[in-house]
Amino acid sequence: MSDLEALKKEAALKAVALVRSGDRVGLGTGSTAKYAIEELGRKLAAGELTGIIGVSTSEASEQLARQVGVPTEPLDPRPLDIAIDGADEIAPNLDLVKGLGGALVREKVTEVQARRLIIIADHTKLVGQLGEKAPLPIEILKFGFLSTIDRLRAFLPGGQLRQPGAQPYVTDNGNYIYDARLPDTFDPAELERRIKGTLGVVDTGLFLGMAERAFVAAPDGVQELTRP
Ligand SMILES: O=C[C@H](O)[C@H](O)[C@H](O)COP(=O)(O)O
């Protein structure tokens, strides 16, 4: 395991330590959340946790949960006790950019119902301001996507349709993603409103005011950050 992978796992174990038997747990998506799902499976198998139910934020996490023995249920209107997920950027106030793994919409729809959203990451995800390192993923309808991108480019120029190969990337919801370049200065809440008010947009990877705390692992230890 590389040093960075070891750090991601360390952060994940800290978050899973907050899960209590009987909890309904939002299962995040990505290379860091993977370690949390595996640890939940390990704890269930070892009898260190009982009766937890996972709610997956992607097909990939659902499949992993099955593999490691975490029982799951689809999202319903009941609150989740806790959700554990990674992030692409973490601002000092714990506002986040998420969605480089393509799961932003299911993550947001699920995690907004969590009493506690715990973010796990390695130290490379910390930024002074959102947009510093990562683009902002915006999920858009496939239908009319070029028109939607035109509308977005009017105030977010410089982004691009996510297209890793010959075809655009398709989300679990059957949509496309526009990876937007964020401006140097902006008001996150205002930008979120503006993007979501754009015809053809499903949702954005801005997670504002949602995370309760973050475990951020660095070579000299795991830092625990809480929302001010
Ligand atoms: O869509 C993916 C999610 O938002 C991930 O939580 C995010 O991309 C971080 O993933 P990773 O832990 O692989 O860096």
From TrEMBL:
Substrate binds at residues 29-32, 85-88, 98-101, 125. NCBIfam families: PRK00702.1, rpiA. Catalyzes the reversible conversion of ribose-5-phosphate to ribulose 5-phosphate. InterPro entries: NagB/RpiA_transferase-like, Ribose-5P_isomerase, Ribose5P_isomerase_typA_subgr, Ribose5P_isomerase_type_A. It is an enzyme of class 5 (isomerase). GO terms for molecular function: ribose-5-phosphate isomerase activity. It comes from Deinococcus enclensis. Belongs to the ribose 5-phosphate isomerase family. Keywords: Isomerase. The keyword Secreted does not apply. Pfam families: Rib_5-P_isom_A (PF06026). This is Ribose-5-phosphate isomerase A. It comes from the Bacteria. Its EC number is 5.3.1.6.
